[in-house]
Amino acid sequence: LKPSKMEEKADMGSALRCVTFALGIIVSLxxxxxxxxxIMSEPYDDEFFRVSxxxxxxxxxxxxxxxxxxxxxxxxxxxxxxxLWKYLxxxxxxxxxxWCQYEALRYVSxxxxxxxxxxxxxxxxxxxxxxxxxxxxxxxxA
Length: 142
Known about the structure:
Helix content: over 70%
Structural class: mainly alpha
Largest sheet: none
Oligomer: single chain
């Protein structure tokens, strides 16, 4: 069966919407990275920003505000469904990783940092091959 004109328009609309959202995410993350690097590597009155934990705190406060707004907009419950200790474990590791990311910007540029973060899966995959005799397809390595 040949798709109707309405179905084709709907498919094009969905594809355009997907591309728009993807570009929005890419642009937002790119801008976020540029701002991170600028904050950590540019001097302010001959002094560099030293308290990266404050930046992590500001980031998390903004995320909490955004999450609270979205919960209200979507009419969801603020009650947690998962034990709090699980939230704590995830949040502590995330805060620690973000703090390290800000600190690393003192020594390397944002693009170098992103290359390093994207490379971190390779040792995990190699370890899986050596220890667990795991196999990976070519597309997994790409």
